[in-house]
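pinging the channel bc i need a second pair of eyes. not urgent but kinda urgent?? the chain im working w is below, pasted from the shared doc
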Amino acid sequence: MNVMHERCAGLDVHKRSVTGCRMRFAGREAEQEIRTFETTTAGILALSDWLQEWDVSHVAMESTGDYWRPIYNLLEGTFTLLVVNARHVKHVPGRKTDVKDAEWLADLLMHGLLNPSFIPSRPQRALRDLVRYRTKVVQQRAQVINRVQKVLEDANIKLASVTKEVLGASGRAILEQLLAGETEGAVLAQLARGRLRAKMAELAPALEGAMQDHHRFLLERQLALFDFLSQQIDELSEEIAVWMA
């Protein structure tokens, strides 16, 4: 078979260790060495030095779990990196039973038989991480809103039946007064603003409930968590805007 990359390597990546096979073509045969490194930063940098000793140009690894990511991040810019689907590697014919994973990857890479996955650039990966985390925080905040509504329902306060914006400006003002000890529905309804004031007749009886001390305890902490998550979302939005600029 034709040799596409004369100096290359395959990496078998695990949680605590990475086994590398560096390979170089000399004359009619390929020379190879196999060594195992820790996946600490120092270990990965030692792996990089070891590969550079043979002037390795291309390095391949399987996209198993997330273990490959820190290795990719540290080797990026020094080598041309290929992340390949483990299923594809498994189904390439010709592998001998005693050949190690790293050795098989290096051999396939040397002969141009790997189909690499698309890996976004470092800035794109950073932006993706930020967006994904923001999405999770938004989901967490939605769960907090649901828990607030559950506490209100348990206290027989039907605010959610009058407005969908339980934690909007009006809803928040009402909840703060509930925490302060106000129980009169008509008094609480006076806190409504905007379009919600048109529903005063419906709102006042909906706010007549039976809020107990443990309801207030839960509600106070849920509102604090809501505020914290909202601040996180705002900060993440600002950071995302910076990365997108």
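so The beta strands are 7-13, 17-26, 29-38, 58-62, 80-84. and The CA atoms of residues 185 and 204 lie 5 Å apart. — does that match what u expected or am i reading it wrong
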